[in-house]
Amino acid sequence: MNSLLSTTDLIIFFGSLFTVMLFGLWSGRKEDSSEDYFLAGKSTRWWGVAGSIFGSNVSANHIVGMMGVGFAVGFAQSHFEITAIAGLLMLCYFFLPVYRKLNVFTLSDYLSKRYDDKSRVSYALIMVIIMVVIQMVPGFYIGSRSINLLLQGDTGRKAVAESVLDEQGILTEVKINYGGENYGSSPKIKIGSEISENLSAVVVDGKITGVNLNGEVITSDASLPIPISFIGGSVNNPDISPGDVEPFYYKLGILIMAIVTGAYVIFGGLKAVIVTDVLQSVLLLLAGLLVAYVTFSQPEIGGWANLVARDLGSEGVERLHLYNASNHASLPWTGVLTGLMVLHFYYWGTNQFIVQRALSARTDKEARIGILAAGFFKLLIPFFSIGTGIAAYYLFKDRNLDVAQDAVFIKLLTELISPLGYGLVGLIAAGMIGAILSSLDSMMNSAATIMTFDLYKKFVNPEADDRKLISIGRIWIIVFISFAGILTIFTMDPNSQDSFFLHVAKHQGNLIAGVVIAFVVGMFWKGATAAGGVSAIIAGVVFSYGIPPLYASVAESNQTLINLFGTKLNFMHGAFISALLSLLVHILISKSTQVDPEKGKLTWIGLDIFTPQQFSVFGKTLAITLLIYAALATLVVLETLKPVHAAWIGSLWTFLCFYLSARLKASENGEAVYKEDRFWAGGLAGCAIFMLFYFF
C-alpha cells in the first residue's frame, strides 16, 4: 500500500494507540470485585465521567459520519448535538437520581424492580441488539474503512460525469467533468443503480476521456439528468474503483480493531474503558479542531464569515441553517422537535452504555458535573465536524472532486493535512481511530454487563461470586467481538455510499420508543403496572416497524400528507408516533391490571427525589418556557424579530430559570452560587437555546 501516513505519522499513530491501550490495561490491573470490573468501583472522578461519556458518544459517528451528513445535507444535522442537551439534563436531574438511589448495576435491574423480570429481559435483549448489531457493526465498518484509506493513501480518484439530454429526455452525451486517475481497465458504468450495457468508458493513460453510447437509446424521466457513476477499473484490482478499499485489508482492519479493543476491555473492565476514553477524547478534540482550522483557512473558504456569505449567495445551497421543511427526507424540523427528543431521552437517560459511566461516579455531584462537562464539549461538534463538512462541500466542488459522504474526513486529510507534514496526519488519525475504539469498548463492556447480571446471575446462577461474574463477563465480550466482527464482514460494504450516521440513528430509533415510555411512565406514575411496562416496550418495536409501510400506503393517494411529511415517513416522525401509541398502550393496560403498591413507590415523588410542590413548580416553569420559545419562533418566522435577538432572549430566560434554582440550593448549602451544578446547567442549556434560534 502507498500509505498516506509518513514514517513520523506512523510512529505517532501507532504510538498513541498503543500508549492508550497500555494505560487502559494498567489502570484496570486490579479488578477484584464485580463492582470494580463493571462499575470501576464507583470511584470515577467528574473528569473521568465527562471524558468517558464524550468519548463513548462521540465516535466515528461524529468525526466521520456527521461530517459526511454535514457535507451532504447541511447544518440541520447539528440538531443531534444541540437538542441532545435536553437529554443530558434529563439524565442529570431525573433519571440518574433514581438509578443511584436504588444502587442498580444495569438499567434492566431498575425495570425489574419497578415492573418485573419480563421488562428486564425485554430491555436487555433490545439493548444487546442495539449495542452489538446496530452500533458495533457500523463502528467496525467505518473504523476499518478509515484505517485502510489512511494506509493506502490516495490511490486514485473517481471520475465525475454528467449526463447530457435532448429535449425529449434522451441521453445524447456523457460529459466528463473530471477523468479521474489510476484506471487500469475500463470500468463499468452505472445509470442510477443499474449497470448499463449500452455505455462503455474510454480509458487513456489511466484516465476516463469519454463514454461510447452503444445500442439502445436511454431516456430520462421528466427530462431530469441521469445519475452517472463508474464501478471498477483500479490498477491493482479491476473489480473496485480507484481509491476504494481492498476487501482483504478491510477484513484485516476489523480483526486488528477487535484484538486491540478487546484486549484492554477483557482484562481491565470499565476502569480501563474510562481511562482510555478520556485519553481518546483529548485526541479526538485535537484532531477535530485541527482539521476544522485548516479547512476553513483554505483560500476557497476564507473563514466562517465568508462561508456564510457564500452559502447564502447565488451559487450557494443554503446549508447553514437548522430547520428543513416538514417533508424533508432526512431531517424535517417537525421530526427534530418530536421524535428526535424521544431518541435523546432514550440515549441519555435509558441507554446502558452511557448511563453506566455516570453510575461509576464517586458521588452524585461528581456524576452531574461530569455529565454537564460532556455537554459543553458536545456543543463544539456542530462547528468542528458538521460545519467543516459544509466547508468541504464547497472546497471539493471548487476542486472538482467526487467524494462519498463517509470519505470526506479522509479526503480532507489527503488534500489538506498531509502536505503540511509534522506528523499531523498521524495525530489526527489516532484521534479518529481512538474515537471509534472508545465507542466499541463502551458497548462491549455494557453489553457484557447486561448479559452477566440480567441473564446469567438472575436466571442461571444467582449464587455466582465476583470471580465467576468477571469470568462470564469476559466470555461475553469475546462472543460479542467475534459476532460483530463476522457480521460486519458479511453485511457491510467497505465502499458503500450510504450515510453511516443516519443508518445507525434510523435502526436504533425503531427499537426504543416503548423503552422510553416504560422508564418515564414508571418514574412519573405510581399507577404503572408490570403488564403495562412490558407491553409498552414490545408495542414500541411493533409500531416502529409497522407504521412506516402503513403511512406509505395511505400517503400514496393523499397529496396533503405528502406535502406535510413526504412520500415516506421519516424515522423521527415514526419514533414520535410510536412513543405516543406505546404511551396509550401502557396507560390502558395499567388501568386494567392490578397495581403493586410497593413497586408504585419507585417514582420520582415516591423516592423523595422531588416533592409534589417541587414537581408542580417545575411543570409550570417548563410550560411557561415552552410558550416563550414558541412566541419567539413565531416572531422570527414573521420576520418581526431577528434570529440573533430571539437567541439572546431565549438563552437569558433559560439561564435565569436555572440560576434561581441554583441560588436557592446554594443558600441552603451555604455555598457560592457558581459552585452549584445547576448554575452550569443553566449555562449549558442557555448555549443550546442560543444556537437553536441563532441558526434559525
Under the CATH scheme, the architecture of the largest domain is Up-down Bundle
Major β-sheet profile: 3 strands, antiparallel
| H/I helix tally | 25
The largest sheet has its strands arranged as 4-3-7
Mean pLDDT: 83
Overall domain count: 3
CATH-derived topology of the largest domain: Sodium/glucose cotransporter
Shape estimate = globular
Terminal CA distance reads 46 Å
Q: In CATH, what is the homologous superfamily of the largest domain? A: Sodium/glucose cotransporter
Q: Radius of gyration in whole Å, from Cα?
A: 26 Å
Record field, number of beta strands: 7
Unreliable stretches covering 5 or more consecutive residues: none
CATH class of the largest domain: Mainly Alpha
Question: What's a concise summary of this model?
Answer:
This protein has 25 helices and seven strands. The chain has 696 residues and is mainly α.
How would you describe the overall organization of this protein?
The chain folds into three domains: 7-154 and 248-601, Sodium/glucose cotransporter (Up-down Bundle), CATH 1.20.1730; 160-242, no CATH class; 612-694. It is 66% helix and 5% strand. The chain has 25 helices and seven strands. The strands form three sheets. Strands 4-3-7 form a three-stranded antiparallel sheet, with no helix packed on it. Strands 1-2 form a two-stranded antiparallel sheet. A hairpin with a 2-residue loop joins strand 5 (199-204) and strand 6. It is globular and about 80 Å long. The mean pLDDT is 83.
